[in-house]
Amino acid sequence: MTGDAVPLGADVGGTFTDLVGWDGTRIVTGKVPSTPDDQSVAVVAGAVGLGVSADRFLHGTTVATNALLERRGAETSLVTSRGFADVIEIGRQDRPSLYDSFADRPEPLVARRRRYEVDGPDDIDDSIAGSAAVAISLLYGFRNGAAERELAGALRERLPHLAISLSSEVAPEFREFERTSTTILNAYLAPETGKYLGRLVSRAADAGLPAAIEVMRSSGGLMPIAEAVALPAAILLSGPAAGVVAAAAVGESLGRTRLVSFDMGGTSTDVCRIEGGRPEVLYERPVSGYPCRMPSAAIHTVGAGGGSVAWIDGGGSLRVGPRSSGAQPGPACYGHGGTEPAVTDANVALGRINPAGNLAGSLRVRGDLAQTALRTVGDSLGLSLPATALGVVTVVEEIMAGAIRTVSIEQGADPRQGYLVAFGGAGGLHATALARRLDMAGVIVPPYAGVFSALGLLLSPPRADAARSVRMENGDQLDGEIAGIITEAGDRLRRGGSEPETTLAYADVRYLGQAHETTVPYAPGDGWDVLLARFHELHEVRNGFARAGDPVEVVTVRAESVGRPILTWSDLPEVRPGGAVDLPPRRVLTDAGEVEARVVSRSGLGAGDEIIGPAVIEEREATTYLGSGERAVVTATGALEVEW
Could you give the 3-state DSSP secondary structure of residue 293? Predict the structure, then answer.
């Protein structure tokens, strides 16, 4: 634990905003409906309602992602080298969907009239004044940023209102298309992200909350708010990343280091593979169709959440998602005016969620409205109410199973040896069915599962990432380049106010002439032969082959520097039983028919307690469902470990 810090974490989802506070002795949790028009309203209201006198305010946000998905970014211009204005339109030869001739790339975020090819500052005409943001990406900006800085300086003198992003600072790596795309993303998102974070700071200060907010970055660590304003491309996966950090922490506490995190919220499901206690990290990924060269947890997202709407396609088949009922009106059972059936409605109709209970402590469930909504789909398909509800659950679980296959089997990893860490308000309702479908070893449902990503903010360390493209075919300069990038990452972390606790380095390696790289861990002194051995091994795992005799080159060096987190899992208070264990039993509909399920209050469970399904385990912000024969044991950490 870091000193006597009193942290508060706020994680914004599509349906709910989750809050977790730590007052030095206990965890306090809260969940309030999200406010999509201005996320800061729900964040500050929920934080005040938590009643914790915090001195650290940590935030996971979807504001950058939403601005991109909804195309609400700034009017942006591109300044680039002569002959390269259209690189963002030409792109690469790969297609969005190989066999779909109607699938097109998204329109470039910079219109053709806003692209400027230059030799120097004098070549930029006054029409650029109509932009709110500018991306500067010169052909060799990754090698030397002086020319980009000169252009930026000239623009700032003439047009001080512009938000300017330089490729040499945002993504100093070779490959002009990907580097330019990332720089444009950053410029496009900077004004909107900056306005939102500015409002959050102002609201927080007015409410007596800390204004020095730290924001979760996509790679799994915290960054000062000023850095998030300047580098919004680094927070595109801000919210989901915190949950992955927490999943790795609870797995490590149980001695489980091969995991898949499974975060099912109201709008979507996020999954990520964790190997050796470390989340898988990607250094490039498409976001809404645009390449983004920023390190991020290798999270795969599908539009399958509790609010995902069930519908009938043109062929008469039952479909679920990706459209969601969101926070307003929400599923029909919320009683806020929603009439379309959602996954939550199906779980209510099946009895997994109490049809006369409360969600998040205050939202009264309307079982009658859930049934009415489901019948609108079931009647059209000629299905009974139970068959309709079971069908919705079957369809959404297949979508989520596909997501887990994507991050495991399709990456050369065997899910049968791993545990599924299930969290989010709806994760525990579907976890065992998914794990059994994929023949996984078991399921872990952590404590505070319904607000787990917010808890992950408190467990996340400050972090800085650095990368630089190089080119070497032997190890003569490798240690020097690695040492240099380690220093750069550490210096960045110190500028943010944190001291490095751990710094790890990597090299992007490929066979000579190959068009893609494999990122290989490396520490100064390991040596070229060790690097090659690791590369061949990882290449075979990922691609099914290795060519040990072929020449190899290193094209990029990377480093991540992390400080000390505010809390570690061992700092969390021991979960002690409080109140009655058993609640009135409930009839639950299953594929095998109706069964009577034991209903248990999770707050009444203590270490060593065992629950055997069929059973429903209820807590304030989440619910866990155990099928017949499934066995949950409460561990010393408070987590439920489920096997069968």
Answer: coil
Cα–Cα dist 441/461, whole Å: 29
> What is the rounded distance in angstroms from the CA atom of residue 520 to the CA atom of residue 528?
12
The amino acid present at 419, given as its one-letter code, is Y
Alpha helices in 382-516 (DSSP H): 385-407, 427-437, 452-459, 478-495
Cis-peptide into 614, omega within 30 deg: yes
Question: How many CB atoms neighbour CB 120 within 10 A?
Answer: 10
Strands 27-33 and 16-22: antiparallel
Number of neighbours of residue 381 by Cβ within 10 angstroms? 14
Is the N-terminal amide bond of 551 cis, ω within 30° of 0?
Answer: no
361-367 long-range contacts, CB within 8 A, separation 24+ = 361/31, 361/620, 361/621, 363/334, 364/335, 365/333, 365/334, 366/332, 366/333, 366/334, 366/335, 367/333
90-146 tens-digit pLDDT: 998 887 777 888 888 899 999 999 999 999 888 988 889 999 999 999 999 999 999
d(CA 566, CA 3): 8
Neighbours of 577 (CB within 10 A): 15
Element (H, E) at 8: strand 7-12
Over residues 249-281, the pLDDT tens digits come to: 999 999 999 999 999 988 889 999 999 999 999
Lowest mean pLDDT among 173-182, 411-420, 454-463: 411-420
Output the pTM of the full model. Answer: 0.92
- Rounded Cα distance between 519 and 522, Å, is 9
